[in-house]
Amino acid sequence: MDYGFTEQQIMIRDLARQIAEEKVLPIRAELDEKEEFPFEAMNALADADLFGIYIPEAYGGFGGGALELCIATEEISRICGGVAVSYAANALGAYPILLHGTEEQKQKYLPDIAAGRKFCAFALTEPNVGSDASAVETTAKRDGDYYILNGSKQWITNGGVAGTLTVMATVNKAKGARGLTAFIVESGMPGFTLGKKEKKLGIRCSDTRVLYFDNCRVPAANRLGREGDGFRVAMNTFDCSRPGIGAQAVGIAQGAYEEAVKFAKTREQFGQKIIGFQAIQHMLADMATQIEAARLLVYQAAREVDKNSKDGPKISAMAKMYASDVAMKVTTDALQICGGAGYMREYPVEKYFRDAKITQIYEGTNQIQRNVIALSIIRESRDWK
């Protein structure tokens, strides 16, 4: 289909696809089996200048936006969801700086992120804090020109490899969401240490960590916005990043669908290729339709984000929710088409199946997305005549 891409966006798509097929495909099974961070693939993406496609040229980026990031993320996810999230999580960590940072903060941190010299992470989730982002327990206490952070974060993507992290802490727990404050933390700051690397169902090559803050001294100059702005920083970030999760989901679904078609065209039963059976044809038809619908919604959500539309948050939530539900449905059906072979780890379909599940969970579960969408509907209904 013609998705209305510019020549530059087509170039990004083709470049990301080439790197995924040439650099990621040969090693994806090994990365998954060994649970190794894909440094080689990250370096290839950085060398191709794909790390900064959503960052303005003034800070060393390409000057694109969420749509360019979605295009690249989808192509990488089509081959490996683990590599894709290792790539896309840099944007999740960088968006708070891009959206709420001072000019000095942007000049200091964004060029290294855009060039891929430093990986980035976003640290909100804690052992007792998930969907309720306002309940953060990590504290930040002002001490002269510094803030002293104490607490821990859990399940942080890129946590063990990031040089720059956006960390959410509360300056006043009694204020709830109004006490949440965002900080830029650098690896190596005294009091900041890494915990265990998590062993996961899917996206196994991504580095997912526990982070500890024990009297970690963070310069006051590293605060993003004012005290109490942290919840707004986090929600604005998710509004921009959720289409990227949708793109991951679309890419994973597309990869699984292609494997299912390939298998159906070669597998013989009852004297014919199974793609000749109407039951299989109908499954493939549904899969193709669902993927295309999800893709179009993701692209539209990214466009809404890039033009700062008032509908952006609602459409972003829809795109993340729908695309990830599609990814889970399509990968399940792809595995079913491949039968016993699909269940075996020597075939890629079971990996797509495992990788798909997380897209329904992180950056706001799909139940939370439905809450976001419903609240938008309620607000809009007040203006109906």
Secondary-structure blueprint:
Layout: H1 7-24, H2 28-34, H3 39-47, H4 66-77, H5 81-100, H6 103-115, E1 119-123, E2 139-143, E3 146-157, E4 162-170, E5 180-186, E6 192-197, E7 208-219, E8 223-224, H7 230-266, E9 268-269, E10 272-273, H8 278-306, H9 312-343, H10 349-357, H11 366-381
Parallel strand pairs: 1-4
Antiparallel strand pairs: 2-3, 3-7, 4-5, 5-8, 6-7, 9-10
Helix pairs in contact: 1-3, 1-4, 4-5, 4-7, 4-8, 5-6, 5-7, 7-8, 7-9, 7-10, 8-9, 9-10, 9-11
Describe this entry's structure for a reader.
- The structure is a single chain.
- By secondary structure, this protein is of the alpha+beta class.
- The chain has three domains: 7-119, Orthogonal Bundle (Butyryl-Coa Dehydrogenase, subunit A, domain 1), CATH 1.10.540.10; 121-230, Beta Barrel (Butyryl-CoA Dehydrogenase, subunit A, domain 2); 231-381, Up-down Bundle (Butyryl-CoA Dehydrogenase, subunit A, domain 3).
- It is built from eleven helices and ten strands.
- The protein has helices spanning 7-24, 28-34, 39-47, 66-77, 81-100, 103-115, 230-266, 278-306, 312-343, 349-357, 366-381, and strands spanning 119-123, 139-143, 146-157, 162-170, 180-186, 192-197, 208-219, 223-224, 268-269, 272-273.
- The strands form three sheets. Strands 1-4-5-8 form a four-stranded mixed β-sheet. Strands 2-3-7-6 form a four-stranded antiparallel β-sheet, with helices on one face. Strands 9-10 form a two-stranded antiparallel sheet.
- A hairpin with a 2-residue loop joins strand 2 (139-143) and strand 3.
- The model has no long low-confidence stretch (mean pLDDT 97).
